[in-house]
Amino acid sequence: MTEQNPICPECKGNNVALIFWGYPGDMDWYLQAIKDKEIVGGGCCIGNNDPKWECTDCYHKWGERDDD
Ligand SMILES: [Zn+2]
């Protein structure tokens, strides 16, 4: 992952995780990334208005999920 995570617009913190939607192909990477707070699991059900980022401090969610 090369993309720099943004700053939380709510609390201005930089503990922001990418929300991972869908089922991970690489479970080891997935669990490690969650442990490192690089991502949070969004669940396997993908909707039309899913946020992209979640602040791990205040749990604010924002942005728009990228379509792969
Ligand atoms: Zn925040």
Structure description:
- The structure is a single chain.
- The longest helix has 9 residues, at 27-35.
- It is built from 1 helix and 4 strands; from the N terminus they run βαβββ.
- It is of the alpha+beta class.
- It binds zinc ion (ZN).
- The site of zinc ion has 8 residues, from loops.
How many individual β-strands? 4
| Cα radius of gyration in angstroms | 12 Å
Mean pLDDT, nearest integer?
91
Could you tell me how far the N terminus lies from the C terminus, measured between alpha carbons in angstroms? Answer: 14 Å
Q: Indicate the low-confidence ranges by residue numbers.
A: none
- Output the structural class: alpha+beta
In what range is the share of β-strand residues? 15-25%
Overall helicity: 10-25%
Q: What's the arrangement of strands in the largest beta sheet?
A: 2-1-3-4
Counting DSSP H or I runs of 4 or more residues, the number of helices is 1
Could you say which overall geometry the principal axes of the C-alpha atoms support? globular
Q: Say which molecules are bound, naming each kind only once.
A: zinc ion
Q: What pattern of helices and strands is seen along the backbone?
A: EHEEE
**Major sheet details:** 4 strands, mixed
SSE map:
Layout: E1 16-21, H1 27-35, E2 39-43, E3 53-55, E4 61-62
Parallel strand pairs: 1-2
Antiparallel strand pairs: 1-3, 3-4
The structure holds zinc ion (ZN).
In short:
The protein is an alpha+beta fold. The chain has one helix at residues 27-35, and strands at residues 16-21, 39-43, 53-55, 61-62.
